Every structure is written in structure tokens, then in C-alpha cells.
Amino acid sequence: MKAWISTLTLMLLFLSSFAQSAEMADQMRADGKIYVVVGVLILIFAVLFTYLIFLDMRLRKVEKENEQA
After folding, report:
1. What is residue 54's three-state secondary structure?
2. 30: how many CB neighbours lie within 10 A of its CB?
3. Domain spans, the chain
4. Amino acid 29: pLDDT
5. Residues 6+ apart with CB under 8 A from 64
6. DSSP states of the chain as a string?
7. What pTM was computed for the model?
8. Residues 44-68, buried b or exposed e (16+ Cβ, 10 A)?
């Protein structure tokens, strides 16, 4: 779990540092659109993270049932 959180944090830091160095990001920041982009990226990563946790829980349940049978 800690590995996922640290990986997600590093990815977000990388994306934010990359966006700060681009000229397009300056224009988007001036227009206030950069917050929409960052919000959408966070939403996408949150949904993927939640799906992976849900999938892991289901796989563990199937593995337990398989071991007991």
C-alpha cells in the first residue's frame, strides 16, 4: 500500500514539475485552465488506483476460495 502511495505521489510531482516548465502551462495557468487539467489527471489516477485495489481484493478472495477447495 505504501508503495502505491509513494508511486502516485512521485507521478503527480513529476507531472506538476513538467507542467510548470512548459510555455503552454503558463498560458493555461493564466487562463485558469491548468486546474482543470490537474483535476482531471488526479481523477484518472484516483479511479485507476481504486480499480486496482478492488481488483486485488477480488483476486485475494478467489485465491482463498481456491486454496480451501
Report:
1. helix
2. 9
3. 43-69
4. 78
5. none
6. -HHHHHHHHHHHHHHHHHHHHSHHHHHHHHHT-HHHHHHHHHHHHHHHHHHHHHHHHHHHHHHHHHHH-
7. 0.56
8. eeeeeeeeeeeeeeeeeeeeeeeee
The three cell numbers locating residue 62: 478467489
Query: Are residues 15 and 37 in contact, defined by beta-carbon separation less than 8 angstroms?
Result: no
Residues 6+ apart with CB under 8 A from 28: 34, 37
Q: For 10-57, write each residue's pLDDT tens digit.
A: 777 777 666 556 677 777 778 888 888 889 999 999 999 999 999 999
Cβ-based neighbours of 38, under 8 Å, separated by 6 or more: 15, 16, 19
